[in-house]
């Protein structure tokens, strides 16, 4: 009788365990393994600033211009964006960064465009002018739609903007927003966008469609606010590259938690040591949208209720199992003393990751007089050097000898403790200080800590160092 009862109890327990596992996997998706939600790609688009009737000129005084080359209709710059709105309606509103559309806004949103980009010989400046300009949202390489600026924030504070399509589209769908909470630190997130399209000056971007979307996986490392600004940001270790600007930071459920922000958008905040990638917190996005009466939809918050129900089911099953075990044990007239359970003799785990030699990351120290030995943190995302105040992190004053608008980039890999320097077809070149060797344009050069380079002129020395 006793053996029969034990067999029945064992089968019942097995069935109950199988049932609760099925319920958890079916009702509680938060407890099961996940991959990136590919439906997110259908809500993301490349945003292209396009010049019409562009031409290049040279000038020495900013008044008299000599034609150099007719450029025609060209892409000037691009970034990423994602659709928001109400379910059941056509996708019409696109969230992005202000700095992605800043040139378009400064040109009067469609009027004539002009900008200086560098020098030909240190005397004659190059000036790019266009008869008109427009913002384009691409669905495929050959299919695009013109977008208009609906609203935008202060680029030095809440670097956000919203574009609007004239009639909306059914070629993409809207994404839902979720306000992140502090308990999400360590959770998996993805940066989504079109990094291959950024800064393709004078060329046409080559990737536009859903299959061209780039996804980087990482996690939330902490929640922060910009010093003196109070703007909420999310620190992540998922890669954010040029062109990711304006793209969504999403959770495993495909909910938007923030807006990816490229390194150059952080340039006003160099007093902060930023060693990770950052996204603007969705709390800021929601406040911005509410302030400007832009429609959006929040993610369903019913997941918490589902998790509670699953927890109650699991607790009920555990209580039933305990009752069955007690009944079976009490039906036995004999009890075997199995002896005391042996004590565990393992040593406690001593905390922490193994030492990495005390290296926190890489830094670039400018020896130029105008920078007074200032240091700049550098990581895997390329740090741009030059006179361009919008895109460069290490910015030289206008007229600095030998320095182009976008002169070179520097990145650092902490795993190999190597720096990578790439000359961006600068006018006067990038050189290794110790040998005087000139870097080939657009060819990355690996260097070690302790090496130094100079850009254009030996008064512009940059020292590559380690932060300990």
Describe the structure in your own words.
The protein is α+β, with helices and mostly antiparallel strands and 468 residues long. It folds into 3 domains: 1-25 and 301-329; 38-291, Thrombin, subunit H (Beta Barrel); 361-467, Tumour Suppressor Smad4 (Sandwich), CATH 2.60.200. The protein has helices at residues 2-27, 98-106, 282-291, 303-331, and strands at 44-59, 66-84, 91-96, 113-119, 125-140, 143-152, 161-169, 188-193, 214-225, 232-236, 248-251, 256-261, 277-281, 361-366, 375-378, 383-386, 394-395, 408-413, 418-423, 430-432, 445-448, 452-455, 461-467. The chain has a 6-stranded antiparallel barrel. Strands 8-9-10-13-12-11 form a 6-stranded antiparallel beta barrel. A 5-stranded antiparallel β-sheet has the order 15-14-23-22-20, with no helix packed on it. Helix 1 (2-27) runs antiparallel to helix 4. It is globular and about 100 Å long. 33% of the residues are buried. Residues 27-33, 197-206, 264-270 and 333-356 have low confidence and may be disordered.
Outline:
It contains four helices and 23 strands. 33% of the residues are buried. It has 468 residues and is an alpha+beta fold.
Primary descriptors:
23 strands; 468 residues; alpha+beta; 6-stranded antiparallel β-barrel; Tumour Suppressor Smad4; Thrombin, subunit H
Secondary structure elements and pairings:
Blueprint: H1 2-27, E1 44-59, E2 66-84, E3 91-96, H2 98-106, E4 113-119, E5 125-140, E6 143-152, E7 161-169, E8 188-193, E9 214-225, E10 232-236, E11 248-251, E12 256-261, E13 277-281, H3 282-291, H4 303-331, E14 361-366, E15 375-378, E16 383-386, E17 394-395, E18 408-413, E19 418-423, E20 430-432, E21 445-448, E22 452-455, E23 461-467
Parallel strand pairs: 16-17
Antiparallel strand pairs: 1-2, 1-5, 2-3, 3-7, 4-5, 5-6, 6-7, 8-9, 8-11, 9-10, 10-13, 11-12, 12-13, 14-15, 14-23, 16-18, 18-19, 19-21, 20-22, 22-23
Helix pairs in contact: 1-4
